[in-house]
Amino acid sequence: MSRWPNYPSVYEINTWVWLNDLSRGGESALTLGTVPQSELERIAAYGFEAVWLMGVWERSRAARKVSREHPGWQDEYRHALPDYTQQDVVGSPYAIHDYRVDPSLGGDEELAGMRERLRELGLRLILDFVPNHMALDHPWLTRHPERFVRGTPELLVNEPQNYFIHDAGEQPRVFAHGRDPYFDGWPDTAQLDYRHPETREAMTDALLSVAAKCDGARCDMAMLLTRDVFKRTWGGEFEPHWAEFWPEAVARIKAARPDFLLLAEVYWDMEYELQQQGFDYTYDKRLYDRLQGQEAEPVRGHLSGSLDYQSRLARFVENHDERRAQEAFGPTRCPAVSALTLTLPGFRLFHEGQLDGWRVKLPVHLGRRPQEPSDPAVREHYHRLLAALAEDIFHEGHWRLLEAREAWAGNPSHLNYVASGWTLASDFRLVVVNLSPDPAQCYLPLEIPELTGRSWLLSDLLGDAQYLRDGDSLAAHGLYLDVPGFGYHLFKLEPG
Fold first, then answer.
1. What are the φ and ψ backbone dihedral angles of 362, each rounded to 5 degrees?
2. What average pLDDT score do residues 98-107 get?
3. Which of 26, 90, 135, 495 could cross-link 95 (Cys pair, CB 3.0–4.6 Å)?
4. How crowded is residue 415: how many other Cβ atoms within 10 Å of its Cβ?
């Protein structure tokens, strides 16, 4: 396949649940090798560059038992799936027993076949890499206990939520659950110890094994492995003291697979640091959080960062960790938020069910979801948005943030706009969003040198409106806009 575009669009699928859905009404459960070709063609028709099959690796029996018995999780299951049973609780895909495809999903051979089928449709494959921890019954706990953070009987008594006993067949050992420094441990996991060179080497090999099966990896909670965060969480010193996992691991991956894409799940304003450590793209949770409000200024401030930084952020309005967009932003705001977010430069992440307006956030421990209706208005919105994003300008073009000016003295509503422009040769796009609930007016300078001496047709690719404007007036004053509350446009500009 050709190289990754600068700004790929990627579709996240909860693999176990997806196969369960496809199996409804059938005589037997589908696996990766028996997914109908029509289903893959349906996904490819959206125009994505890649599919992220979330949760393909072998799950843990012990972790599944924790998922089924943990008292704090049962209400989450019941809220998402009122008729759930114990059989629906298949365990977390982030408590990995082995980097082999789970037999229930079809195994490694069927994944290889799926990858080839996707490639024939022009789709790449992204898989998970979960570097911070393993399942609490991972074979390494017996064979290589030194690769994990150890505890003491005293810690087990004082912090039972963060430590557990693993019976290795002789004297029981105390190990730490995987965690970040701000929360209790994940009770179905065992924390890897990145202070030791052997652990770093083993996990680099694990990442190389993942890379052999796909075209990119989404790296779970990647910032937890940085030296400073790890030391803040667990104390102690690295061997050697200056060691970092990611720069060395990324260098080995890129040496073997220069085209392999690495996406970091990262929070706490550590996006730039992870980019500097080698990641191609890093989660943009900060933008997501700022869009929870209704103020445009913090969003514009966020987007005013350098283009080198902006271009390597992963944009999303939902994923498996967040609430569904229709719930998080509401049906009135959601189209504007998605039009703004998903037309920005960077990695564009779409979530299974997002295109239908699904509202239920499903716990990752469940293997079945409720049946939800498809919202025709949401489907139409994403049909138009994805058609626009399929054009080269949104993958290889030059993006810039535009600054709206007041339409008349004493009218501050121009401050409610976030606007940007895309250019590729003589091709132009304009994205305009009013983030307030009230109408807003402005003049918007377009910064297109070819404006003068001709008329311009502005066609809204997310609606049906068309406007003819004089180029000399556009150059002198900018484009006048009067957009309703939470309104938006994606204009194609061409000589009229």
1. -95, 125
2. 98
3. 135
4. 16
pTM, two decimals, is 0.96
CA separation for the pair 141, 184 (Å, rounded) = 21
| Range list of β-strands (E), 307-447 | 313-315, 347-351, 398-402, 417-424, 427-434, 440-444
Cis peptide before 240 (omega within 30 of 0): yes
Residue ranges covered by each domain of the chain: 9-395, 398-495
Is pLDDT of 315 > 80? yes
The two tokens of residue 7 are 């700004």
* pLDDT tens for each residue of 426-483: 999 999 999 999 999 999 999 888 899 999 999 999 999 999 999 999 999 999 999 9
Spatial neighbors of 184 by CB under 8 A, at least 6 apart, are 161, 162, 177
Q: Residue 343: which of 417, 416, 283, 421 has the closest Cα?
A: 421
φ, ψ at 366 (rounded to 5°): -90, 145
Which of 491, 483, 480, 484 shows the shortest CA–CA distance to 442? 480
Closest CA to 121 of 7, 54, 43: 43
Beta strands in 358-476 (DSSP E): 398-402, 417-424, 427-434, 440-444, 455-460, 466-470
**Residue 134 contacts by C-beta under 8 Å, 6 or more apart in sequence?**
95, 96, 97, 140, 141, 148, 178, 189, 190, 192
- In this structure, are residues 290 and 259 in contact, taking their beta carbons and an 8 Å threshold? no
| pLDDT confidence bin for 169, thresholds 50/70/90 | low
Task: Please tell me the distance from the alpha carbon of residue 345 to that of residue 351, in angstroms, as a whole number.
Answer: 18
Could you please state the CATH topology (level 3) that the domain comprising 9-395 is classified under. TIM Barrel (3.20.20)
> What value does the CA radius of gyration of the chain take, rounded to a whole number of Å?
24
398-495 fold: Immunoglobulin-like (2.60.40)
The 8-class DSSP code of residue 293 comes to S
CA 116 → CA 14, 206, 208, 328, 442, distances in Å? 19, 22, 19, 36, 50
**Cα torsion for 325, 326, 332, 335, to the nearest 10°?**
50
